[in-house]
Structures are given as C-alpha cells and as structure tokens.
Amino acid sequence: VKIMFGTSTLIVFDFDWSLINENSDTYIIKKLKPELYNYMKTLMSGEYEDRWTALMDHMMFKLHENGVTKKDISDCLKEIPFFKEMFEGVEFCHKAECELVIVSDANSFFINEILTHHSLKESFTQVVTNSANFEEENGPLKVFPHQSPSSPHNCRLCPINMCKGAIFDSLRKPSHQQVIYIGDGGGDLCPCLRLQKSDIACIRKDFSLHKMINKNPEQFTPTAEIVIWENGVDVFDLFKKKITSS
After folding, report:
1. Annotation says 14 is catalytic
2. Which segments within the chain are labelled E, that is strand?
C-alpha cells in the first residue's frame, strides 16, 4: 500500500545502530579514552547492571576526570559513522511532510550535537530521550534518566529508565494512518508490539530485536508488516516505495 500523503505518516527512529550506525555511548568512550572501556564493561555486568543511564552519567564523570572537555565530546560526535542513505531518507520524508520523531535511550546532548552537525535537526518534530547537559561549562556532562526510578513505568519488556511503548502511544495521533518504526534493539520490542496491521516495523537484521523475535516468535512477532533491513539503502528504498509527497 502506498500512502499518498506524507502528513498522515509518522516515522519513528531509534537512534543508536538505527539512525546512526554506531552506539553513541560506547563510541565516545572507545574513541576518547579507550583505556576506560574495559572498566566500563566491568561495571556493566557489575554494580551498574540494568542501570545504563546511571552508568553513562558515571562514565561522563570519568571522562571529565581524565581531562576530556565538552569540545572533545562534541568533536568526537561529529565523526560518528552513519549510512548516508539513512540521512537522505530522513530528508526525503521531511520533504514529503511526514512527521519524524526520535525515541532513544541515548541522551539529548549526543543526539542534538549529531543532528545539528548534519543539518537534520529541523527534520524532527520531537526527540524523546534521556536528558543530558553540562551544568558547569568546564564540568562533566550530566545524564539523567528519562523516567525517574521513583515513578516506575512497570513495563516488564523495557529498561527501568524508559518504556518506548508508552512513549510511542503518546506520540501516535488519530491522524496518523500509518507508522513506520525503525529500530534494532531490545528496547524497540515494546513499541513494535503496539504497531497496527497497517504499520511497518523495520527491524535491523541480526541485531538484538531481530534475535528476540526469532527466538520467541509466538509472543514477540508484531502484527505490523515486518521489513528486515541491513543498511541505509534498504530503509531509503522502503521510504521511496511507501511515501508519496502530496
């Protein structure tokens, strides 16, 4: 089915390994202080297990302690890998008057820096993520959970700081005849299960979302049309097939 007018289409992007072709959180550590990456991995399976946002806040403090500045982080983010066709696809959908949003477990500073550098900020009506800022110009980047542990979302599929399914429900309007959701990770399962028959779940091949569905197809297969993608060309081709500008 080709949707004739972009305005009735909502396109939801996950960020890491979806809109960009990297994990922005680990990329920063590996590039700026590779010697801290093993320390980070130890914490991941130790005291910070299942507390990713708190871990990132701690790692930003460690970078600062090791002399990494705001400019260093900003410059590093500008180099992050991406599929150029993915960014071209964003511009194509924006021109077709689709509504584009990002729902991500990264953080607002990283996402904002990358979108600004690639002149993509205007294409998105909303970015829903963990907030992050430099409270002091020469201090560390502080990262805060999107959802505070004191008011839990109670979704068993999602990480403690963010239920992407609940966020997705709040973003979908009655005027959206179709949703295209582009994701790759375990956190994208919940919103994909909330998609309708007329929607499309774009699932990255062999990444954790794909593996979870394959492992438990009865429970985890979305009712939406499923498109498996490997790179930006696949996603841009899908956009061209499904969206016509008015």
Report:
1. yes
2. 9-13, 99-107, 126-134, 141-144, 178-183, 200-204, 225-229
72 in active site:
no
Q: What are the structure tokens assigned to 107, written together?
A: 């953080």
Looking at residue 178, its amino acid is Q
In the block, residue with structure tokens 């990358």:
114
Cα radius of gyration (the chain)? 18
The dihedrals phi and psi of 80, each to the nearest 5 degrees, come to: -65, 135
Question: What would the pLDDT profile of 76-105 be if each residue is shown by its tens digit?
Answer: 999 999 999 999 999 999 999 999 999 999
- Nearest 5°: CA angle at 200, between 196 and 203? 120
User: Whole-model pTM above 0.90?
Assistant: yes
DSSP percent split of the chain into helix, strand, coil, nearest 5: 45, 20, 35
Question: What is the spatial distance between Cα 12 and Cα 35, in angstroms, rounded to a whole number?
Answer: 35
